[in-house]
Amino acid sequence: CKVENSGNSYGFYQSSMNEDVAVRVEMERHLRSALQNNELYLHYQPIFGSDDRRLLGAEVLVRWRSEELGFVGPDNFIPLAEQTGLIVEIGHWILKTACTQGRKWLDEGLKDFYLAVNISPRQLRHQDFIYLLKSVLDETGFPAQALVLELTEGLLVKKDSGTAQVLDDLKALGVMLSMDDFGTGYSSLAYLKMFPFDVIKIDRSFVRDLAVDASDQQLIVAAIEMAKALGLKVVAEGVETAQQLHFLRDAGCYSVQGYYLSKPIDPMLFSERIVEKELAERLVML
Ligand code: C2E
Ligand code: MG
Ligand code: MG
Ligand code: MG
Fold it and tell me: Are 148 and 175 within 8 A, CB to CB?
């Protein structure tokens, strides 16, 4: 794998193993100091009701601007953080930072607003995860009921009873669980039956070709019907066009997220563009 420095961002390309290892070692070295050097920051992408476009919540997405490497996307460094165990510390920082920000927005008057935070498998399986999460909620005052944890199927493949226990404990704490990238794994349905999910998040690969692909349309309609039958909420990610939004709305998909509505943005912009607008609209409706 060789690193292509296109613009200011690093991408991976399949190539020789040795280069692969060298790049990873290099990246790992920099990732280790990223937190201390304040190179990590969070973006927030709003999630809206498909019907009334009311603000429901936001997904928290981590960003890394490395002094040496430039911008590195989460698809590149999260797997590395996961492999090295750095995700435990980084993930804790993400939760703490997001919940602190979320508390501010609630204090500004945003009611019925949730934050969806991605949790990677190793972070969730860490023995202290529940304890750390509890202390973040206590310290920041962010309500557990306003927190959604987005989990991927990768986590659940290990059919250990440990995972089931952690998920039950999380539910007892009051947080909601969302199955991210729904439909991309092999056993989404089996896991929905086995574990206490509240939300499914339809992967953007199903949304992308909605306009032209009849089978994607049927899959989405079926997924929404199934979710309803099971009492689960549905979020569709990757909504890029009005057409996609209207299809999803008409199919009964409760909430939507995507570039058509807003890209992930920094918290300042989120306050200005999203929170203030929402508060003004809610005031009008009173
Ligand atoms: P994900 O959780 O499925 O996040 C959704 C991804 O879709 C994000 O990419 C988001 O920026 C992108 N996206 C949103 N709307 C659109 C759209 O309309 N069109 C297109 N093409 N893309 C859209 P991002 O931020 O690059 O994150 C990629 C993945 O990295 C995430 O996928 C998640 O698995 C992981 N990730 C990101 N932040 C975190 C984090 O804080 N913790 C952990 N553990 N993983 C994270
Ligand atoms: Mg996600
Ligand atoms: Mg997703
Ligand atoms: Mg996805």
Answer: yes
Which residue pairs, CB below 8 angstroms and at least 24 apart, start in 123-131?
123/82, 123/87, 123/88, 123/91, 124/149, 124/151, 124/155, 124/163, 124/166, 125/155, 125/162, 125/163, 125/166, 126/88, 129/166, 130/166, 130/169, 130/170, 130/173
| Per-residue DSSP letter, 9 | E
Q: Using pLDDT thresholds of 50, 70 and 90, give the confidence band for residue 273.
A: very high
CA 148 to ligand 2 center in whole angstroms? 10
* Full-model pTM: 0.93
* Cα distances (Å, whole numbers) of residue 116 to 79, 149, 247: 19, 6, 24
Instruction: Give the whole-number percent of the chain exceeding pLDDT 90.
Output: 80
pLDDT value of position 163: 86
In the reported structure, the alpha carbon of residue 189 is separated from the centroid of ligand 4 by a whole-number distance in angstroms of: 17
**Which of 40, 61, 210 is the pocket-test mutation for ligand 1 (most atoms within 8 Å of CB)?**
61
> What ipTM does the predicted assembly reach?
0.98
Task: Tell me the pLDDT band of 5, cut-offs 50, 70 and 90.
Answer: very low
